[in-house]
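Severity: low
Component: inverse-folding endpoint
Summary: output formatting inconsistent between runs
Steps to reproduce: submit the following C-alpha cells with default settings.
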C-alpha cells in the first residue's frame, strides 16, 4: 500500500473522532502527493492539490522542503500546474515562515531572470525568519552589486516587513466567557493527561475545559450569538493560567477563540484574548505574547475597607470582596487599544495599559513576539551591511536608571547579561531588556511543540552563545506506553541533532534517563550569574535566575540564545529566629507563604515578582526546595543568595554530577558538558580569590516589599490544603491555604502518600529510610495503612543512595521496585498498601500517566494540588492533594491518617531532617 493510501486510512479514522486530516510534515507523503498533482489524470489529483496548498506544515519540516522545491519548479516554468500560477506560488512561499522557502526565494531573487527575481525580492521584503546563512547569501550578493539584493537590504534597514503591516484595530469588540471561578490552572485548558496529543493541535483542542463538552458547546453557542465579536476567556475572582507554562493551553484557547494565522497553515490560530480578576500568571502571560494575544488584569473584585481604612474580613478571616463590575458570560465589552481602556458601552471599566504596552502592541501587530525578535535582528544586519545608523522603528525599550540607587540581585544579573544597551548604563526594575540566555531546558510533554516551533521558525541548530541545553524524559517516566514509544524517541533525535544533551540517546550508547528536568538544570547551572530558560513552570534554579517558559519561548532561546522581558521587581525575604529541631525545611517554605499573606493583609506581594531569598547556608540541592515552591507563590522567578563557601560546595556537587553524565556517554561532539565543568572551575577560582564573590544585592537596593520570616513562629509541620469544600469556590485549589498539623486533629484519613517530584532531594530519600528504620525499631515492623509511592528525582540520587546504603533500606520495605529493563507499559489503576519504589521522574505530580484513585485524599511532597491533577473527583467525594514535608507523608501512610503532633514528634526523634539556620552574615555588597 502507498503512503498516500495509508494517509487516506488515517483520515477515515480521524473522521470517526470528528477530526480533519492531520497536517502533513513528511517529505515522503508530500512527494507522492506532488507526483499525483503532476499526473493530470490521477484519480486523487484534486484532493492532492488541496492537501498541498492547505495542509502542509511550514518551516523546516521535511514536507516544507518538498513544497518549496515544487513551488520553485512552478515559478521557473519547469512544472505546469494550472491551479497554481507563479503568482500564487509566490504567495504560498510567503506563508511558509523560513527555512526551505527562504532558500528558494533567495535562489530566485539572486538568479538571472530579472522579472521573477524582482517578484521574489518583493516577497522576501515581507519575511523575517532569516538566519546567518541566509543573511550571508544576501550580503555577498549585495557586495557584488546585485540590484535585487540591494533593494531587499535597503528595505530590511527600514524594517518595512514591520512598518508596512496594518495598524491594530483601535476598538476590539469582545464578549465574555467565564471559564471558571477562582484561579484557573493550565490543566483546565490543556490537561496533563493529554500531553501526548499536544503536537496534533486539532486533536489536542478537543481537551479544552478538560473535555467538558457542555462547556465547549456553551462557548460555540456564544460565538454563534456574537459572530462579529472576539471571545474573552476569563478567570473570575482568580488568576488565569496558574500552574504550568503551557503553550498548548494558549494554543487551545487560540484555536477556539483566536484568529487564523494563515489560510494555508491548518489549525494554527493566534491572538487569543484572556483575562483574570487578578490578571494572568506571569509565565502564561509571556505565552500569550508569543501568539500576539492580549492578557488583561480585570481588577473587577475590590477588597472592602472599613472607615478606618482596615481591610474587612468575614467570620473565617477571609477578605470581603465587592464586585466593581460584572464580567458574567455574555457581557459585551470593548477593548480600546488607543486609550488603553476597557469599556462597557461609554463607561470606562478599568485601565488596561499593562496589557497594551508599546512592546505588546507590536506583538499584536506582527502576529506574535517571534516576528519582532527576528525583525530587530534582521534590521540590525541590514543597517550594518549598508554601514548606516539603525533607524528607530520599533518602540524604544523602556529604560529606567535611577541615580544613587543600588541593584537587587536580579537587576545585577540582567545588567550583566543585557544585549544592546549603551555601555556603562545601569538599568533598574521596569526596564525592558534583551538578555543572553546561558542554560536552556526542554521537557518531554512540551518538547514536541518546541521542536515544531523550531521547525516553523526555520531553526536547524542551537545558538552558539548558549552554554548548555538539556532535553528531559521525566514527564513520561512513569509509563513507557505506545504513545511514549511513538513520540519520545522522535523528540530525542530531533533535539540531539539540534545540539541538546538528551535524556535518551538516539544511538542507544547510554541508558535512557528519566531525571526530573529541574534537577538536571539545577546541576547544569554552574554560574550564579546565569540566566536559565526552561519549558516548565518549575524552572526555578537555586543558582542564577531561572524563568519557566512556554515551548515557543524555549524554542526562541534555543535558536537565538536570547530572551526579551522586563526586569522584574524583587521582594526580599530574610529570616530570624530559630528552627525547631523536629521541623523540616519544607515547613519553612510553607510558613514563608503563610506569613507573607498574613503580614500583607492577604495581598500576595510575591505575584509576578522575583523572590530574592537570603538562604545563605543551604546548598543548591536543599535551597531548591524553596526556589521550586516559588512557582506556587505565583512569583515570576526566584534568586537564592548564598554565602561564598556554600556556593562553592554547590558547584562542586554540580561538577561531580556533570562528570557522571560525561562518563555515561551523554556529552556531544561540542563537549557541552565538559564546557560546563570548565565554567564551574573558573567560577570557583573567582570566588576563592575574591575576584568575584557570590552574587549579592547592593545594600541600597530598592525592593517592592521586604518580608522577614520568623522561624520562632513555625512550631508545627505546615500543610498546603486545596480546601476543596470551601463555600467560596474561588478559594479552592489555591496554594494560599496553609494549615498547621494540629488543624486536622489526627483524624483526617489519608488514602495514598507520594514522595517525589522536583520538590525532594537526596536528603528526603535519606529521611524516608531513617523513618522506616525508626518505625521498625519502635513497633517491631513497618506496615502501611495506605500506599506510599516514592519517585526519586534523579538516577544520580539513586546511585548515591545505593553507595551509602540507604537504597537497600528502601528496597527492604518496598513491595515494588522499578526495573529499567522492563518499564511499566500501562498506568497503574489501583494501589496496595505497600511502598512503591518508582522510576525517577515526575510520576503522580504530572498526572498525565498515573493518578491516585478518584476521590482519594493524597498527602504529597509534590507542588500540585489543582483539581484533577494528582487525583480526580469521584461521584461520592472530591479528590484532595495535600502538600507537606517528607516525614508527614511517610507517617500519614503508616497511620492511614494525618498524625497528631505528638505522633509526629515521636516518629522523627533522632532523624536528621533538613535543617536551616539564617546566615549570620549580611548577604549584601
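Observed output (run 2 of 3):
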Amino acid at each position: 500500500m502507498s503512503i498516500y493510501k495509508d494517509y487516506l486510512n488515517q483520515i477515515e479514522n480521524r473522521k470517526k473522532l470528528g477530526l480533519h486530516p492531520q497536517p502533513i510534515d513528511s517529505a515522503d507523503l508530500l512527494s507522492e502527493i506532488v507526483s499525483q498533482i503532476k499526473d493530470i489524470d490521477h484519480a486523487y489529483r484534486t484532493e492532492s492539490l488541496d492537501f498541498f496548498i492547505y495542509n502542509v506544515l511550514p518551516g523546516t519540516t521535511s514536507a516544507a522542503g518538498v513544497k518549496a522545491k515544487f513551488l520553485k519548479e512552478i515559478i521557473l516554468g519547469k512544472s505546469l500546474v494550472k491551479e497554481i500560477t507563479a503568482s500564487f506560488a509566490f504567495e504560498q512561499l510567503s506563508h511558509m515562515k523560513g527555512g526551505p522557502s527562504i532558500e528558494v526565494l533567495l535562489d530566485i531573487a539572486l538568479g538571472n531572470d530579472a522579472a521573477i527575481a524582482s517578484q521574489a525580492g518583493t516577497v522576501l521584503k515581507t519575511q523575517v525568519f532569516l538566519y546567518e546563512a541566509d543573511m550571508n547569501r544576501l550580503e555577498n550578493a549585495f557586495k557584488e552589486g546585485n540590484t535585487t539584493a540591494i533593494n531587499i537590504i535597503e528595505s530590511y534597514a527600514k524594517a518595512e516587513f514591520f512598518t508596512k503591516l496594518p495598524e491594530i484595530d483601535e476598538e476590539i469588540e469582545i464578549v465574555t466567557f467565564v471559564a471558571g471561578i477562582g484561579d484557573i490552572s493550565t490543566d483546565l485548558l490543556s490537561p496533563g493527561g493529554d500531553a501526548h496529543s499536544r503536537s496534533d493541535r486539532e486533536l489536542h483542542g478537543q481537551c479544552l475545559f478538560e473535555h467538558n463538552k457542555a462547556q465547549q458547546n456553551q462557548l460555540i453557542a456564544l460565538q454563534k450569538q456574537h459572530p462579529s465579536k472576539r471571545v474573552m476567556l476569563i478567570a473570575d475572582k482568580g488568576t488565569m493560567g496558574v500552574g504550568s507554562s503551557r503553550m498548548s493551553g494558549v494554543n487551545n484557547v487560540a484555536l477556539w477563540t483566536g484568529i487564523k494565522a494563515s489560510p494555508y497553515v491548518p489549525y494554527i490560530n493566534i491572538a487569543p484574548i484572556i483575562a483574570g480578576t487578578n490578571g494572568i500568571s506571569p509565565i502564561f502571560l509571556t505565552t500569550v505574547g508569543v501568539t500576539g494575544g492580549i492578557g488583561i488584569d480585570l481588577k473587577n473584585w475590590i477588597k472592602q475597607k472599613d472607615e478606618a481604612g482596615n481591610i474587612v474580613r468575614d467570620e473565617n478571616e477571609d477578605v470581603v470582596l465587592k464586585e466593581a463590575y460584572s464580567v458574567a458570560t455574555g457581557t459585551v465589552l470593548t477593548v480600546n487599544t488607543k486609550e488603553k481602556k476597557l469599556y462597557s458601552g461609554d463607561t470606562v471599566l478599568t485601565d488596561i495599559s499593562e496589557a497594551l504596552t508599546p512592546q505588546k502592541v507590536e506583538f499584536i501587530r506582527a502576529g506574535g513576539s517571534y516576528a519582532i525578535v527576528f525583525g530587530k535582528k534582521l534590521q540590525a544586519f541590514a543597517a550594518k551591511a549598508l554601514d548606516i545608523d539603525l533607524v528607530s522603528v520599533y518602540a524604544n525599550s523602556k529604560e529606567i536608571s535611577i541615580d544613587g540607587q543600588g541593584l537587587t540581585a536580579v537587576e545585577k544579573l540582567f545588567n550583566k547579561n543585557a544585549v544592546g544597551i549603551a555601555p556603562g548604563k545601569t538599568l533598574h526594575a521596569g526596564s525592558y531588556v534583551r538578555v543572553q540566555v546561558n542554560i536552556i531546558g526542554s521537557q518531554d510533554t512540551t518538547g514536541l511543540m518546541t521542536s515544531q516551533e523550531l521547525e516553523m521558525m526555520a531553526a536547524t541548530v542551537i545558538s552558539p552563545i548558549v552554554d548548555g541545553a538539556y532535553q528531559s524524559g521525566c514527564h513520561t517516566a512513569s509509563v513507557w506506553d505506545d504513545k511514549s514509544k511513538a513520540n519520545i524517541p522522535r523528540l530525542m533525535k530531533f533535539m540531539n541533532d539540534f545540539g541538546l544533551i538528551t535524556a535518551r540517546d538516539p544511538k542507544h550508547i547510554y541508558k535512557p534517563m528519566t531525571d526530573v528536568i529541574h534537577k538536571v538544570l539545577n546541576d547544569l547551572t554552574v554560574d550564579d550569574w546565569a540566566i536559565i530558560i526552561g519549558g516548565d513552570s518549575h524552572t526555578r534554579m537555586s543558582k542564577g535566575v531561572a524563568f519557566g517558559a512556554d515551548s515557543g519561548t524555549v524554542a526562541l532561546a534555543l535558536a537565538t540564545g536570547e530572551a526579551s522581558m522586563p526586569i522584574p521587581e524583587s521582594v526580599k525575604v530574610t529570616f530570624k529566629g530559630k528552627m525547631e529541631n523536629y521541623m523540616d525545611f519544607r515547613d519553612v517554605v510553607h510558613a514563608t507563604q503563610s506569613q507573607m499573606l498574613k503580614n500583607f493583609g492577604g495581598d500576595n506581594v510575591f505575584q509576578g515578582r522575583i523572590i530574592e531569598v537570603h538562604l545563605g547556608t543551604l546548598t543548591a540541592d536543599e535551597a531548591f526546595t524553596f526556589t521550586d515552591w516559588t512557582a506556587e507563590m505565583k512569583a515570576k522567578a526566584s534568586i537564592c543568595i548564598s554565602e561564598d563557601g556554600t556556593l562553592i560546595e554547590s558547584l562542586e556537587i554540580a561538577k561531580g554530577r556533570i562528570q557522571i553524565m560525561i562518563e555515561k556517554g551523554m556529552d556531544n561532539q561540542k563537549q557541552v558538558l565538559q564546557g560546563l565543568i570548565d565554567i564551574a572551575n573558573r567560577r570557583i577560582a573567582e570566588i576563592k580569590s575574591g575576584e568575584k564573590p557570590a552574587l549579592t544585592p547592593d545594600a541600597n537596593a530598592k525592593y517592592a516589599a521586604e518580608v522577614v520570616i520568623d522561624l520562632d513562629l513555625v512550631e508545627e509541620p505546615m500543610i498546603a490544603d486545596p480546601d476543596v469544600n470551601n463555600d467560596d469556590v474561588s478559594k479552592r485549589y489555591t496554594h494560599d491555604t496553609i494549615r498547621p498539623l494540629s488543624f486536622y486533629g489526627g483524624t483526617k484519613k489519608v488514602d495514598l502518600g507520594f514522595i517525589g517530584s522536583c520538590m525532594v532531594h537526596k536528603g528526603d530519600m535519606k529521611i524516608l529510610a531513617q523513618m522506616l528504620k525508626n518505625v521498625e525499631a519502635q513497633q517491631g515492623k513497618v506496615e502501611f495503612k495506605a500506599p506510599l509511592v516514592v519517585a526519586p528525582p534523579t538516577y544520580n540520587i539513586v546511585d548515591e543512595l545505593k553507595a551509602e546504603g540507604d537504597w537497600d533500606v528502601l528496597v527492604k520495605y518496598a513491595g515494588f521496585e522499578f526495573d529499567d529493563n522492563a518499564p511499566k507499559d500501562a498506568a497503574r489503576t489501583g494501589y496496595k498498601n505497600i511502598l512503591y519504589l518508582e522510576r525517577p521522574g515526575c510520576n503522580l505530580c504530572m498526572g498525565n500517566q498515573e493518578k491516585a484513585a478518584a476521590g482519594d485524599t493524597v498527602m504529597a511532597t509534590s507542588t500540585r494540588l489543582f483539581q484533577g491533577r494528582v487525583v480526580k473527583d469521584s461521584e461520592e467525594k472530591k479528590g484532595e492533594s495535600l502538600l507537606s514535608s517528607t516525614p508527614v507523608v511517610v507517617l500519614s501512610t503508616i497511620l492511614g491518617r494525618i498524625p497528631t503532633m505528638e505522633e509526629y514528634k515521636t516518629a522523627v526523634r533522632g532523624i536528621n531532617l533538613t535543617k536551616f539556620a539564617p546566615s549570620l552574615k549580611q548577604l549584601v555588597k
